[in-house]
Amino acid sequence: MILDSETKAVELPDDHGTELRLWLRLLTCTTLIEGEVRSRLREKFDVTLPRFDLMAQLDKVSDGMTLSDLSKRMMVSNGNVTGLVERLVESGHLDRRTSETDRRVQFIRLTKTGRAEFRKMAAEHEKWIADVFGDLSPKDIRELMRLLAKAKGSAQRSAKARNA
Amino acid sequence: MILDSETKAVELPDDHGTELRLWLRLLTCTTLIEGEVRSRLREKFDVTLPRFDLMAQLDKVSDGMTLSDLSKRMMVSNGNVTGLVERLVESGHLDRRTSETDRRVQFIRLTKTGRAEFRKMAAEHEKWIADVFGDLSPKDIRELMRLLAKAKGSAQRSAKARNA
DNA sequence: GCCAATTGCTTGAAGTTTAAAGAAATTGCA
DNA sequence: TGCAATTTCTTTAAACTTCAAGCAATTGGC
Asked: For chain A, what are the domain ranges?
């Protein structure tokens, strides 16, 4: 243990162990919950998590969204979205139509069926998540929200600095 | 807004919106950081995140680990680990040897080169993570650690209940 | 000892993901 | 206008991932 002149524990200048442990814990939590959601989606609705996530993005809007929008919001690559959308159009959940002003752009929407199916899944999903966080008090949740918002801001700042 | 008899805002019995928002925020944070780490690993060391993660598990022990151990610790499927290990043995980072008491079991270790390479990457990685969380105070970090531990426990309870 | 159940790992199919390269269309600026 | 840069989307190859099925070895009753 290293002590400073006032006999208080201090960190070594290059010890970033606490941040690393925080990251590992964050990752563990997310992986755990994600795995749980994935299992349940497959089990109850025979749908994959990426498809659910994509539909969730589309359900937020009424009039559709471009592939680029989807890719940004989902934080995955363009090519990835191309494939996902393709399969979901194939299965009748989505609908695509080319923009009239820019022929590169495709507007993607949920079909009637797609939206209905998604809403059913989303209702269940919300209950699962509530149960997953069931041991947390409202205050815990507020605090977590606040701290994660701060963490998100910090991470964005860090990422931005690297790409500058 | 719904108010109870003492004029205090209350939630609808089935509104689990706060938990859902918490989950989305947790997911966003993790995805953001994971993407950042992935990019940097590729850029600076030309290594993928899954390989780094696997080596990180092995670096914690001196004498090796079985595939099952790896799969449990990494929270991924068995088949996944089989493939990752295969490629890392191929590239000379890992070493495998069959147990003498149970011929189903394979002990996996980092090779000398593998460990040296990993240590170099890990040192950088730790700095990146410290920067990612750079805006958080020590108190923020402690609080996040505590709340995430609670969330993890809650999620485990929930998962366990489902599989019971 | 026998054999059913379990455990450790591999395989194969389907799907997801990234990175990189490329095609098509639009934009902006000289 | 002309054309270089940018944007949108697709394509490709390689890797990653899960799930389910299967094989080989071990374990635990009996």
From this structure: 47-123
Average pLDDT of A121-125?
Answer: 95
Does residue B7 have a pLDDT over 60? no
Of the pLDDT bands very low, low, confident and very high (cuts 50, 70, 90), residue B9 is low
What pLDDT, on a 0 to 100 scale, did the predictor assign at position A148?
Answer: 97
Residues 132-161 of A with CB under 8 A from B: 132-136, 138, 140-141, 143-145, 147-159, 161
- Whether residue A58 is predicted with pLDDT greater than 70 in this model: the reply is yes
Smallest CA–CA distance, residue A117 to chain B, in Å, is 19
From residue A87, alpha-carbon distances to A34, A103, A115, B50 in Å are 22, 22, 16, 26
Task: Pick left, alpha or beta for residue A105 (phi over 0 → left; psi -120 to 50 → alpha; otherwise beta).
Answer: beta
Alpha-carbon distance A16 to B31, whole Å? Answer: 21
Reported as a single tens digit per residue, the pLDDT across B65-93 is 999 999 999 999 999 999 999 999 999 99
DSSP letter, residue A42: I
Task: Verify whether the Cβ–Cβ distance B26 to A148 is below 8 Å.
Answer: yes
- Model pLDDT for residues B44-61, shown as the tens digit of each residue: 999 999 999 999 999 999
How far does Cα A45 stand from its chain's mean position? 20
- Cα–Cα distance measured from residue B94 to residue B79, given in angstroms and rounded to the nearest whole number: 17
Which residues of chain A from 75 to 134 reach within 8 Å of chain B, CB to CB?
75, 126-134
| CATH of A47-123 among 3.40.50.1820, 2.60.120.1440, 1.10.10.10, 1.20.1440.60 | 1.10.10.10
What pLDDT, in 10s, does the model give residues A17-29?
Answer: 899 999 999 999 9
A85 touches strand D (CB under 7 A): yes
What class does CATH assign to B18-159? mainly alpha
Q: Give the three-class secondary structure for B122.
A: helix
CA-to-CA dists, residue A4 to A11, A15, A16, B153, angstroms: 10, 16, 18, 36
Report how far residue B18's alpha carbon sits from residue B152's, in angstroms, rounded to the nearest whole number.
17
